[in-house]
Amino acid sequence: MANIQKADDFVDTEAGQLIMDAIAIRLQVIGETTKKIDLQFPDFLPAIGIDPKPIIRFRDFISHHYDEADYEVLYEICTKHLPALKEKLDRGT
Q1: Which residue would you say has higher pLDDT here, 34 or 1?
Q2: CA distance 92 to 1
Q3: I need a surface site. Which of 52, 62, 73, 91 has the fewest CB within 10 A?
């Protein structure tokens, strides 16, 4: 995200599109990992204030409908939701 300052940076250049693709794959991995954690330890994520359902649903969406992913939504996830998720995970460990 170092070269991404606004959502349009994902679509204005080929480099931005590559970064967006890489981020989508990483978000897919985060969703898959969340799904595994939730299956093995169903009380852990809710106990630290994380609802796993939206993360898992987004993983499913990216996996099956990537071509419909909105770059502005990806930007919002990266700038707002991921920092909040990291903070909760850091407090829970």
Answers
A1: 34
A2: 25
A3: 91
Q: Which residue has the tokens 């939701």?
A: 81
Q: Which amino acid is at 53?
A: K
pTM of the model: 0.87
Q: How far apart are CA 37 and CA 30, in angstroms?
A: 10
**What whole-number distance in Å separates Cα of residue 28 and Cα of residue 40?**
19
pLDDT at 44 over 90: yes
Please report the pLDDT score of residue 93 as a whole number.
64
Report phi then psi at 7, rounded to 5: -60, -40
N-term to C-term CA, the chain: 25
Token readout for 56 is 């898992």
Residue 16 to residue 6: CA distance in whole angstroms: 11
Helices 52-65/14-40 angle, 10° precision: 130
The DSSP 8-state label assigned to residue 67 in this structure reads G
